[in-house]
């Protein structure tokens, strides 16, 4: 049985996707994607699945994701799914399609939070100066 495993990251969220032969079932942390909330996050995860079209009916996708927030998890899952599909089919046409649509489907987003600095509450905010 052919299996492909891939991972994706976004901020502090880490996702692992397993693609294998099946009937088109997609689950995130053992929850069917059809009932996964919120809808915007579900649509984000469905992007690489929508791009491959009819090939989705030949595979099952199991995603395990932890850490981060809802959208960070969704974008990490999206990258993991796209990478797993790419390595499962090994089709250069799919890879070209993913790269043309959005490069972050196959490449992790490297942006991270800035560290907190002295004399302020966060990375940018500072205490006010009075001069009087």
Q: Which strand order do you get reading across the main beta sheet?
A: 1-2-5-3-4
The helix-strand sequence is EEEEHEHH
Examine the secondary-structure arrangement and name the CATH architecture: 2-Layer Sandwich
Round the Cα radius of gyration to an integer and report it: 18 Å
Helical residue percent band: 25-40%
Q: Would you report the number of β strands?
A: 5
- Note the main sheet: 5 strands, mixed
Strand residue percentage: 15-25%
Unreliable stretches (pLDDT < 50, length at least 5) are: none
Structural class: alpha+beta
* Mean pLDDT value: 92
Alpha plus pi helix count: 3
Q: What is the number of domains?
A: 1
CATH topology: Ribosomal Protein S5, domain 2
**The CATH top-level class label:** Alpha Beta
Terminal CA distance reads 75 Å
The outline comes out as: elongated
Which key features would you list for this structure?
alpha+beta, 132 residues, 5 strands, single chain, 33% helix, Ribosomal Protein S5, domain 2, 5-stranded mixed sheet
Write up what this structure looks like:
The chain has 132 residues and is of the alpha+beta class. The protein has one domain: Ribosomal Protein S5, domain 2. It contains three helices and five strands. It has helices at 39-52, 70-89, 92-101; strands at 3-10, 13-21, 26-28, 31-32, 59-66. The protein has a five-stranded mixed sheet with strand order 1-2-5-3-4. A hairpin with a 2-residue loop joins strand 3 (26-28) and strand 4 (31-32).
């Amino acid at each position: 049985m052919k299996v492909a495993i891939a991972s994706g990251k976004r901020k502090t969220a880490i996702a692992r996707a397993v693609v294998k032969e099946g009937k088109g079932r997609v689950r995130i942390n053992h929850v069917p994607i059809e009932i996964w909330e919120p809808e915007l996050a579900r649509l984000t995860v469905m992007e690489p699945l929508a791009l491959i079209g009819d090939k989705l009916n030949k595979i099952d996708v199991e995603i395990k994701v932890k850490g981060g927030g809802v959208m960070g998890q969704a974008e990490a899952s999206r990258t993991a799914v796209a990478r797993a599909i790419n390595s499962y089919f090994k089709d250069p046409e799919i890879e070209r399609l993913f790269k043309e649509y959005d490069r972050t489907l196959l490449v992790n987003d490297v942006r991270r939070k800035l560290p907190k600095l002295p004399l302020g509450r966060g990375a940018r905010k500072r205490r006010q100066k009075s001069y009087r």
